[in-house]
Amino acid sequence: MTGPERSDESSIGWIVPDWPAPPTVRAAVTTRRMAGSSAAPFDAFNLGGRGDDPAAVAANRAALIERLALPASPRWLRQVHGIDVLDADESIADQEKTADAAVSRGEAVLAVLTADCLPILFCSEDGDAVAAAHAGWRGLAAGVAEATIARLGVPAARLMAWLGPAIGARSYEVGEEVRAAFVGIDPRAAEAFAPTRPGHWLCDLYALAHQRIAAAGVERVYGGGFDTYADARFYSYRRERETGRFASLIWNVRQA
């Protein structure tokens, strides 16, 4: 487990996760600093389909493939804050499935869209299996991380995870129902909440994710330390309400 891990995206526009993944595993996180087709309030490189001009989103998604030299179109999901995990190798590539995570042992490009929720990337130590999960507090409490780990079909000790940009603990005030959802499952989750005003808490999604992933047997967890609410590079639903989505992607090129 480490502290913040990020690369300097100033020259390329996107973030490359800093983790000891095998050389065949590629990953990236887009930012709103990338030149794109979306107008305010979605400017500029919005990859989500809610509210924005569909033509602009389509243009941004096409540009994403070219700029990241992706081997295929990303497998976009209809995310619903649940725990369903898509096996991208067993589904039709051009169909958008309802799920909040995806796994692949082939060359599918996996992607999750977020704007404060926590994106989690996984890979096996040999690079044969990769996964991406969308973990808002509901999905994280319900077990989306554990469901993704199980669907990978790789012993947890042979997996590693990277926690991408999400809302930080200093910015994320929640109600008692959120705290209760986690503490009711594991009393140790109380350590991830700091009281503010009556009935409200500051919530550390990163700490909660570390707890859940480690409890599932994955000891190598990297990343974290971002705050989408405070960092203008990222879309933030809490900050702006009407806003876009950035993508966290992972794929396997099979040849280093």
Instruction: Pick out the low-confidence regions.
Output: 1-8
Count of DSSP strands:
15
Strands side by side in the biggest sheet? 4-6-9-8-10-14
Distance between the first and last residues' Cα: 26 Å
Morphology: globular
Q: What CATH architecture label applies?
A: 4-Layer Sandwich
CATH superfamily: CNF1/YfiH-like putative cysteine hydrolases
Report on the biggest sheet: 6 strands, mixed
Q: Treating each run of at least 4 consecutive H or I residues as one helix, how many helices?
A: 6
What is the gyration radius calculated from CA atoms?
A: 17 Å
SSE-based structural type: alpha/beta
Report the β-strand fraction as a percent range. Answer: 15-25%
What number of domains? 1
Helix content: 10-25%
Mean pLDDT: 93
CATH topology grouping = CNF1/YfiH-like putative cysteine hydrolases
What's the SSE pattern? Answer: EHEEEEEEEEHHEEHEEHEHE
CATH first level: Alpha Beta
Question: Which SSEs are present, and which pair or pack?
Answer:
Blueprint: E1 25-29, H1 54-67, E2 74-75, E3 77-78, E4 85-87, E5 97-98, E6 101-104, E7 109-114, E8 118-124, E9 130-135, H2 137-142, H3 144-152, E10 159-163, E11 173-175, H4 176-183, E12 193-195, E13 200-203, H5 205-215, E14 220-223, H6 237-240, E15 246-252
